[in-house]
Amino acid sequence: MRIDVLTLFPKMFEGFTSESLLGKAIDNKIVEINIINFRDYSTNKHHKVDDSPYGGGAGMVLSVEPVYNALISIDGYKKALKILVTPQGVTFSQEKAYELSNVEHIIILCGHYEGYDERIRDLFDLEISIGDYVLTGGEIAAMVLIDAITRLVPKVISKDESHLFDSFSNNLLEHPHYTRPSEFMGKKVPEVLISGNHKLIKEWRLKESIKRTKERRMDLYNKYRKESNDE
To answer: What pTM was computed for the model?
Structure first.
């Protein structure tokens, strides 16, 4: 998988792309991440990438020209899936992460200022939001997308099945986990988990996932019931 990121703050991605699973995936050439400073593509003598909005109003608006120039400089940009991170986009989900993990080439634009020149939207295929709140810029949102997507790419996680039971993967929150010691401050690990009976363990985990989802996320629980016909 290849991901190109258009940003005004490339240094924000340095630690992100060099550590943890993503860093290993890049080192092992499973994932390729290219960080592009689209300020370098501004034709303004001061390398400005924003301007005041037509019609007046507060804030500055990201200009279309430097974004366009940076975009067309990317090899294969026409065939790539081009994503705009914006609070106005569709809400990101685990389901969408799975879908995007099958895309060979993704380009992500990190916005700034008051908003985008509307003509920038015409250059992109998909608008995604990571939640109902506003960030200073799109870099953190882009990192969320990249992390959630790339961990699902085959061979990024050594045991691919380990993400199949993540929260949200089946409309359920993940079941409780325990490790050593078996007892801590009077609280013991459930007996079923040390029983060695894998069938009972599997049943317990599903039961606990359903219980936790019902208690914490009724919206997910209702979706689980509907899709599993568990009425």
So the answer is: 0.88
